[in-house]
Every structure is written in C-alpha cells, then in structure tokens.
Write a structure and sequence with these properties.
With 290 residues, the protein is of the alpha+beta class. The protein folds into two domains: 2-151 and 281-289, Ribosomal Protein S5, domain 2, CATH 3.30.230.10; 156-279, GHMP kinase, C-terminal domain (Alpha-Beta Plaits). The protein is built from ten helices and eleven strands. The protein has helices at 53-65, 88-104, 110-121, 127-132, 168-173, 181-200, 203-209, 216-219, 226-236, 256-269; strands spanning 2-11, 20-34, 39-41, 72-77, 135-141, 144-150, 156-162, 240-242, 249-253, 273-279, 286-289. The strands form two sheets. Strands 1, 2, 3, 4, 5, 6 and 11 form a seven-stranded mixed sheet that branches. Strands 8-9-7-10 form a four-stranded antiparallel sheet, with helices on one face. Strand 5 and strand 6 (144-150) form a beta hairpin. Helix 1 packs across helix 2 (88-104) and helix 6 runs antiparallel to helix 7 (203-209). The protein starts with a strand and ends with a strand. It is an enzyme of class 2 (transferase). ATP binds at residues 81-91. Residues 52-134 form the GHMP kinase N-terminal domain. InterPro entries: GHMP_kinase_C_sf, GHMP_kinase_N_dom, GHMP_knse_ATP-bd_CS, Homoserine_kinase, Ribosomal_Su5_D2-typ_SF, Ribsml_uS5_D2-typ_fold_subgr. Catalyzes the ATP-dependent phosphorylation of L-homoserine to L-homoserine phosphate.
Length: 290
C-alpha cells in the first residue's frame, strides 16, 4: 500500500498574486492499494470514479511517463475544506502524481512533479509549496516553471475559514485589467519586502508589507467578515491576507498567543467562522509504504 501525505497551502500570500504560496501543516492523506477495478472512497458519490481529481492526476502522470493506467483502490482522508482557498484541489493533484511515481518506481525529481502538477492546475502557486514545503516563489517561462524556495521563520498561522465558498472563477472576474504604474511599483516593492520579512522573522515589517493593490481590494466584497478582521489585524500589526481566492483568511505571527487572542475576538464578535491554529509546513508532500 502506498500512502501519500500532502499539506494544505495558502496561495497569493497577499502581495504575491499567482506567484507566492505557503504550505501549512494541515494535511490530506491518500492511500493507494492494488485492486482488480478502480475503487474510490472518502469523497462525494459523484467523484467515486475516473473523474476524481486524484485519479485524473495519476492518469496525467501516466501519460507523461507513457505508461498504461493501472487499477487501484484509492482512499481519501482529508478535512481540508473544499473551495475555501486552502489548496484542496492541489493536494489531490500532487497526491495523484506522487502516487503514480511511487507505483511505477520512476523516482521523478520534484521539478518534474511540479511541471506535471502545474499543467493540471494552470499555475504553480498552490502546487509548488505543496510539493516543496515552506514558501515558494514561482513564475512561468512559456511552459516551464521557474521556482525559488523561500525558507520561513517560525511563524504560527491562524486559518480563519468562513462557512461559505468563494468560487475562483467568480473571484477572477472582478480583477482589474489595467494597473497604474505607481501601483505596479508599490506591488513589486511590497512583495520583495514580504519575502525578506517572511524569511527573517520580522513580523512588524511583514505586517507593513501586507498591502495588496492587485486582488484583495476587489475580492474583499465576497468575504463579509474581511473588513472587520483586517481592521483588527492592522491595529494589532498582524500580517493578514486572503488565502487563495478566499473565503479563508490567513493571519501569521511569531507569537502564538497573539493568534489565540484573535481567536477569542472572533468567537466573541463574529459568527459563522471556523478557525485553526497551524504552523508553516517545513516539508512538502511525502510518501510512506505500508
């Protein structure tokens, strides 16, 4: 039996739209066993077949390696919420590719796995940290992914998860088609400082760098709790951003107690929010043989 374990991710990291991502220690688990027919368990009934994203990723890796599709039993064990901006689809994509690699003992390197995963996802900001862990910065050069690993200081994270979805397609429709030159300069400068502060553990500087002009001002309308939480975080100088396209919001701090205080504020003042204390995942997806 092959077990694949993949961390959730927070894409965009505020100022890094479609290029920055961070892995967190909220894990999805997938097991693959030999079977005479394809069996999928642990997901809604409509995805218990070859249309399952994990299976599709496995098959895509087979195509890449020019191998026939095997049959197997897939069991999915995850509580990462779907369509909340925590990379749930990326966990499925990465799991399928890693399982294929392990099934056929091909020993693909991580960059090959990233290439296949990006071809499925369309962009690398979620799949890259899921594969490599910590944080990653990526860009596309034609069909090639260029990636840099961003080692992170020991930040704690609070994932604040509303009990409603924000569809990525909906969130992309509201994005601007043009941006003023001065705003482009601001975006790049804040992103550069964000990466340095994330690595160096400068929480105050990280909070100051969380001023996005590219997507958050337009997507905030879909998250009714955003403004109140953003105001709290700005007053406390806590780094905070919309995770992916939402609806999850991610807050980080070097001091876990500051996030516990925020959790109490949420419980006392805002209804309909789940929240979970996490850390940055220091490693990415991995395989166990059982």
């Amino acid at each position: 039996m092959i077990s694949v374990h993949v961390p959730a991710t927070s894409a965009n990291c505020c100022v890094g739209f479609d290029c920055l991502g961070m892995a967190v220690d909220w894990w999805a688990h997938f097991t693959f066993e030999e079977s005479d027919e394809l069996i999928v368990e642990g997901c809604p009934e409509e995805f218990k077949g070859s249309n399952n994203l994990v299976v599709q990723a496995f098959y895509t890796a087979c195509d890449y390696l020019r191998l026939d599709y095997p049959t197997f039993k897939l069991t999915i064990d995850t509580d990462i919420p779907f369509a909340r901006g925590l990379g749930s689809s990326s966990t499925c994509v990465v799991a399928g590719i890693l399982a294929c690699d392990a099934w056929f003992k091909k020993n693909m390197d991580q960059l090959e796995i990233l290439k296949i995963a990006t071809s499925i996802e369309g962009h690398p900001d979620n799949v890259a940290p899921a594969i490599f862990g910590q944080a990653t910065a990526c860009f596309m050069e034609k069909e090639n992914v260029k990636m840099s690993l961003v080692p992170c200081a020991d930040y704690h994270c609070l994932a604040i998860v509303p009990r409603y979805e924000v569809k990525t397609s909906q969130a992309r429709k509201v994005l601007p088609t043009k941006m003023a030159f001065k705003d482009c300069v601001s975006q790049v400068s804040h992103a550069l400082v964000f990466i340095q502060a994330l690595q160096q553990g400068d929480e105050s500087l990280l909070a100051s760098s969380c001023k996005d002009l590219l997507h958050e001002p337009y997507r905030r309308q879909f998250i009714k709790e955003y403004d109140r939480i953003k105001t709290y975080c700005e007053q406390k100088q806590l780094p905070m951003w919309i995770s992916g396209s939402g609806s999850t919001m991610m807050v980080v701090s070097l001091e876990k107690n500051r996030l516990i205080e925020l959790s109490k504020f949420l419980d006392e003042n805002l209804n309909g929010l789940d929240h979970r204390c996490l850390t940055i995942a220091k490693k990415g997806a991995f395989i166990k043989y059982e």
